[in-house]
Inverse folding.
């Protein structure tokens, strides 16, 4: 992909700022900008964003609740409650998986599909408009690169850092609680066990 000039977003960081070269920031900022454009279209259709995410996840067929949660970027308990509300609206249907009765499968109802079809068409048109300035080759490369990035990091465990790690490293002597298991393993030289 050819390099594009660094642009300054109104009210955004200066072109030489650290965050303008920081991948996590750039991905989050791009996601926020592009998503907010589409969320405005959803608002015009009176469709809540999370309803859209569930319908988009289920558009190609039934999925387990856990898979819907993963695709919708939400926790399973949150999605379970949302699916319950969407079921009351006759947008989705839950049923036990025929192969594993412990697994709950979710699918769109006819009403849910009728609502989802034009939204998916709008999403595709929006995506096309977002990618058009890049040209077909660069747009395909961008999507492939993002898929590769996601695939690579979805298979690896996140590197611990930040306040939670510092809190987890607090010893029993200062808190009266035992160390968390991953840190205890690391202390004993078994971090990769």
């Amino acid at each position: 992909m050819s390099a594009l000039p660094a642009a300054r977003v109104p009210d955004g960081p200066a072109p030489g700022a650290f965050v303008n070269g920081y991948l996590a920031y750039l991905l989050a900022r791009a996601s926020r900008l592009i998503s907010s454009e589409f969320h405005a279209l959803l608002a015009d259709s009176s469709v809540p964003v999370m309803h859209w995410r569930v319908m988009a996840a289920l558009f190609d067929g039934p999925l387990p609740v856990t898979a819907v949660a993963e695709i919708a970027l939400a926790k399973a308990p949150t999605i379970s409650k949302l699916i319950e509300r969407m079921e009351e609206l006759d947008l989705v249907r839950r049923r036990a998986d025929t192969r594993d009765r412990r697994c709950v499968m979710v699918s769109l109802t006819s009403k849910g599909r009728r609502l989802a079809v034009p939204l998916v068409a709008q999403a595709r048109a929006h995506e096309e408009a977002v990618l058009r300035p890049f040209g077909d080759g660069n747009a395909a490369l961008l999507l492939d690169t993002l898929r590769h990035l996601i695939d690579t990091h979805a298979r690896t465990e996140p590197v611990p850092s930040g306040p939670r790690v510092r809190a987890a490293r607090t010893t029993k002597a200062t808190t009266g609680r035992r160390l968390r298991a991953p840190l205890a393993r690391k202390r004993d030289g078994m971090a990769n066990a």
